[in-house]
Design goal:
Layout: H1 4-31, E1 41-48, E2 50-66, E3 69-72, E4 78-83, E5 90-91, E6 96-100, H2 103-145, H3 151-190, E7 193-195, E8 200-205, E9 212-213, E10 225-228, E11 233-240, H4 241-244, E12 252-257, E13 265-279, E14 287-296, E15 331-348, E16 353-356, H5 364-375, E17 389-397, E18 400-405, E19 407-411, E20 415-420, E21 427-431, H6 433-439, E22 445-448, H7 454-457
Parallel strand pairs: 1-22
Antiparallel strand pairs: 1-21, 2-11, 2-15, 3-10, 4-6, 4-9, 5-8, 6-7, 8-10, 11-14, 12-13, 12-15, 13-14, 15-20, 16-17, 17-18, 19-20
Helix pairs in contact: 2-3
Length: 458
């Protein structure tokens, strides 16, 4: 007789196997649609396609800096004995900035003057010797013609005369060399007095009276100060390689400066670099940017006295007399307006999704990646580089979602241009993201939610 416990265990195993089989069959039936009671109705949010003006924006950040800034370095070394400016002072072209102690350079000039006088005395000695040799040569030449002296004596006098001529020429060249050295020393003495090369503001002063500075003719000397045109400021920003193709010289931009929150200034692009700035080269974090300079066109830095104003400077100010005072190094963010489309059919960016021509198993993850790229409004997204994906919008017609393939244009932060596919004034599905990107299909029943309906928005 078998134990009663073994029969109980066998019965439990049979029940477990049967329950598992029922669950598997239920899952299969659900996936095949055998258990569906009818069509699924999706609750969606909608908006209406409208005519709008869309401006494509490229955003970047950078620093404020003067358009023109001159670095003052000395050509000669020495001690600063006079400093006539302070940081922030406004100077005119040719104004005295500082003096370097000239004693050594004056002594060098005195020494070279004495050397020049010595060389001139040697020139006169060489001239006298040459004339003496010339007379002897001419006399012996006459005697040689009458056969009164030997040819040897004649040749000796001739060679002596030619040697004295060469000595005289050498003395002349030595005088020219001494004069050149004297001119150089006089130029160095003049370089001990440093004057402003242009109108501007002392934006940086790195030295004080009594300091020694190093001047080098072949290499950069000590940076003493900088002179900048503070009324001509610009913002230098880094623009990513994906966006730089959309940016052009003379594009306009909105500038936000951290020092002036809640204010927007105007600017225009003046320069775009041709050489890239690459960081993290050869790594997964490699970034390629291009330098772009944007001139600030809003009047600024006008808080100078009338006699300090630069000729041609704009005197008009903004609302309520507000004039920003920009300083080099201030952080700024710019929104560059690269392209504008006027009165075009547009829909919210999230209304445009992607669908494959022939959906296959295992592609849902790729589709989600493509959709996320589209939602960012990136015009250089992966979707546009893969022909197997189509851009579509779902239009609500009598409670049914109808899929329309569309061709898109530029976009801003909220809306995207529809070049073809749907007309103005139709109701398009904008959400939710999960339903729009994964579940909604052509012909599905939809119910517009109250919070997201076009009627609630109106």
């Amino acid at each position: 007789m078998k134990p009663k416990g073994s029969a109980t265990k066998r019965l439990i195993k049979i029940f477990g196997f049967t329950a598992g089989l029922i669950v598997l069959l239920a899952i299969a039936a659900k996936s095949l649609g055998w258990l569906d009671s009818g069509e699924t109705t999706h609750t969606v949010e909608t908006a209406r396609s409208e005519l709008r003006t869309i401006t494509q924006i490229v955003s970047a950040s950078g620093k404020m800096q003067p358009e023109t800034e001159v670095i003052i370095r000395p050509d000669v070394s020495g001690e600063i004995i006079e400093l006539t400016v302070r940081e922030g002072d406004f100077v005119r072209e040719d104004d005295l900035l500082l003096r370097i102690k000239p004693d050594i350079y004056q002594a060098n000039i005195d020494q070279l003057n004495a050397a020049l006088l010595t060389q001139r005395s040697r020139l006169e000695q060489a001239r006298a010797s040459m004339l003496q040799a010339q007379m002897e040569y001419e006399t012996r030449a006459q005697l040689f013609e009458r056969n009164s002296i030997s040819r040897m004596e004649y040749m000796q006098s001739k060679n002596s005369y030619e040697a004295e001529q060469a000595n005289f020429k050498a003395a002349e060249y030595q005088i020219e060399s001494a004069e050149a050295q004297l001119r150089r020393a006089e130029e160095e003495l003049q370089q001990t007095v440093i004057r402003s090369p242009a109108d501007g503001t002392i934006s940086l002063l790195a030295v004080e009276r009594g300091e020694r500075v190093l001047g080098q003719a072949q290499t950069a000397g000590t940076e003493m100060m900088r002179i900048a045109r503070m009324d001509q400021m610009e913002v230098e920003v880094d623009v990513n390689e994906n966006d730089i193709v959309s940016v052009a010289v003379r594009d306009t931009a909105d500038i936000e400066v951290d020092a002036y929150p809640d204010r927007v200034f105007q600017g225009v692009i003046t320069e775009i670099a041709n050489s890239a700035q690459v960081t993290g080269s050869g790594t997964a974090d490699q970034v390629t940017n291009y330098k772009v300079k944007i001139r600030v066109s809003t009047p600024h830095n006008l808080d100078m006295t009338p006699d300090q104003m630069v000729e041609g400077q704009v005197l008009e100010v903004g609302e309520a007399g507000f004039v920003p005072n920009f300083k080099p190094g201030m952080s700024a963010t710019v929104d560059i307006r690269t392209e504008t489309a006027y009165n075009v059919v547009s829909v919210p960016i999230q209304a445009v999704t992607v669908r494959e021509d022939e959906p296959e198993d295992g592609d849902s993850e790729d589709s989600e990646i493509q959709e996320e790229s589209l939602q960012t409004g990136d015009q250089n997204s992966t979707i546009e580089r893969q022909e197997e994906y189509r851009r579509v919008v779902f239009v609500v017609e009598d409670g049914i979602a109808r899929m329309h393939e569309v061709s898109t244009g530029i976009s801003d932060s909220r809306y995207i241009q529809i070049q073809s596919g749907i007309p103005e004034g139709v109701e398009v599905v904008t959400g939710s993201y999960r339903i729009l990107s994964r579940e909604l299909a052509d012909g599905d029943l939809v119910e517009v939610s109250g919070s997201g309906s076009i009627y609630a928005q109106n």
